[in-house]
UniProtKB/TrEMBL annotation:
One of its GO terms (biological process) is protein folding. This is Calreticulin. Belongs to the calreticulin family. One of its GO terms (molecular function) is unfolded protein binding. It is found in: Endoplasmic reticulum. The lineage of its organism: Eukaryota, Metazoa, Ecdysozoa, Nematoda, Chromadorea. GO terms for cellular component: endoplasmic reticulum membrane. Residues 76-89 have a biased composition (Acidic residues). It comes from Brugia timori. Keywords: Chaperone, Endoplasmic reticulum. Gene3D superfamilies: 2.60.120.200.
Amino acid sequence: MYLYGDIGAVGFDLWQVKSGTIFDDVIVTDSVEEAKKFGEKTLKKTKEGEKKMKEKQDEEEEKKRKEEEEKKKEEEKEEEDKEEEEKEEDEKKKKDLSNDGDGWKKRWILSEYRNDYGKFNLSYGQFYNDPEEDLGLTTTEDVKNYAISAKFPKFSNKDKLLIVQYATKRFTLPDDDCGGLYIKV
């Protein structure tokens, strides 16, 4: 800092200063006491400014965190809703293919390709947990071929797996020689 007699001007020589650097609170005095008080005032003001800036940053971060949290909750809710819709759709599909008394005869179509196919009926077999829940299509004749099909609601599995799942159990104790099952979609 340079002081030029009675001109009362002050100047700074700067080099390699980062852009955005602020020069403020300049004092020109010949009193050490005045400079000390000014320095303390400047330091206090700087600390208050830093505190306010930190509080503002914290508020912005908290606001951003809350917004992200809300967005995440909304996304989770949307995902839950989507999963619930898919579950309801799956339940609808299950119901459409389920066995409800003689209703299965309307949904399941016996093949007429050959006239010697065996007949189906409903049964829960010898071993079951719940007679209504465990009720399923049952073959009724020994050593016969069977063919049956049912439509299911149209859907798309684009970019998803297609899973066809079924369970089988023997109607009687295992004394069969052989057997096989093919599923066609």
